[in-house]
Automatic annotation (TrEMBL):
Residue stretches making up the Solute-binding protein family 3/N-terminal domain: 40-269
Pfam family, one: SBP_bac_3
Protein name, UniProt field: Amino acid ABC transporter substrate-binding protein
Signal peptide location: 1-22
UniProt xrefs under CDD domains: PBP2_BztA
Keyword Hydrolase: no
Species for this entry: Neoroseomonas marina
Keyword list, A-Z: Signal, Transport
Family membership: Belongs to the bacterial solute-binding protein 3 family.
Keyword set includes Signal: yes
Any Gene Ontology biological process: amino acid transport
């Protein structure tokens, strides 16, 4: 009798789960529907930081954020070219997303509680870990930030870096003079021209700025870090399916590295892999794509377009690029880093 009751309960649970899944798959996704109707993804990126998003000599956007946009387009359309890049300043990015000008932000945007709870937006999975730092001239004789008493510091309007800088100098009772700019390139020009003694922003962006200086060796990034700056994509609240698409797409790029799936071997692994996790991720079995209203090959198409997370990082800002930023906390958890893909099953 007990076994019979248990079997009946399991069947009831399975039926309920299937009913919920069917109902979820009928709920419309205004954002995904609009993207498909328009035939392209509107992706918000920065106005120009090497390593994340910067036009090359042909005007083609290159960098981690730009390629994440391309990969998402590939997951939706099986075509990484079906993306429209919309450069946004720090002070306009969230307004542009909230108004519908862009579908998603992949734009060096720190995930914070107030941003997540007060702007009508949701941040998604962390794809980059960073911290606030300062860059100075190498010959300035500055060894630590505390040495910059009375310094003029370039900052970007609308970023967490404004508050982090003010909080730190207040905590050590040291005066400084902020000079605030709308865009990174404006702050960079002011720094080179001598209008500022230092530039304060996230260390990865400082590395990108330094790589595009006339003489990068003239500049040094101080080793201290003063904040946690986890970057995540942002989407509008109220469209759960679109949130799921962006969340699990980002996770899939990390999961691909964990599984050793690369841009070059994805096709072979899809044909030959016996591992159930690999078969699910690459669409041999269709349930992952079905759960978020995408083609079963959504993750496979994205990986084929941009590679796994490690390939993406090394190509855009790794130690063999001008940015030359060690992965540090952006290594996989199995390699001592913080990146950890949630189970895709």
């Amino acid at each position: 009798m007990y076994r019979g009751l248990m079997a009946a309960a399991l069947m009831l649970c399975a039926g309920f789960s299937a009913t919920v899944q069917a109902q979820q798959n009928t709920i419309p996704s205004p954002t995904l529907d609009a993207i498909r109707a328009r035939g392209s993804l509107n992706c918000g990126i920065g106005t120009g930081v090497a390593g994340f998003a910067l036009p090359d000599s042909r005007g083609v956007w290159q960098g981690l954020d730009a390629d994440l946009c391309r990969g998402l387009a590939a997951a939706i359309f099986n075509d990484p070219a079906k993306v429209r890049f919309i450069p946004l300043s720090s002070s306009t990015r969230f307004t542009a997303l909230g108004s519908g000008e862009v579908d998603v932000l992949f734009r060096t945007s720190t995930q914070t509680m107030l941003r997540d709870t007060t702007l009508g937006l949701r941040h998604v999975t962390t794809y980059f870990y960073d911290g606030h730092g300062f860059m100075v001239r190498a010959n300035a004789g500055v060894q630590r930030v505390r040495d910059m008493a009375g310094a003029t510091i370039c900052l970007i309007q609308g970023t967490t870096n404004e508050q982090v800088t003010a909080d730190y100098f207040r905590s050590v009772n040291v005066a400084f003079q902020p000079v605030v700019f709308e865009r990174t390139d404006q702050a960079q020009a002011a720094l080179v021209a001598g209008r500022c003694d230092s530039f304060g922003t996230d260390a990865s962006q400082l590395a990108g700025v330094r790589s595009s200086m006339p003489n990068p060796r003239e500049w040094t990034i101080l080793p201290e870090r003063f904040s946690k700056e986890p970057y995540g994509a942002y989407v509008r609240r109220g469209d759960d399916n679109w949130y799921d698409v962006v969340r699990w797409y980002t996770t899939a790029i990390i999961e691909a590295e964990e599984q050793g799936i690369t841009q070059a071997n994805a096709e072979e692994m899809r044909r030959t892999a016996a591992n159930p996790n690999t078969r699910r991720l690459l669409g041999v079995t269709p349930e992952l794509g079905q759960s978020i209203k995408l083609d079963p090959l959504w993750a496979y198409n994205a990986i084929r377009a941009i590679g796994n997370y490690g390939e993406l990082y090394e190509r855009t800002m790794g130690e063999n690029t001008p940015v030359s930023l060690p992965r540090g906390p952006n290594r996989l958890h199995t390699q001592g880093g913080l990146l950890y893909a949630l189970p895709m099953r």
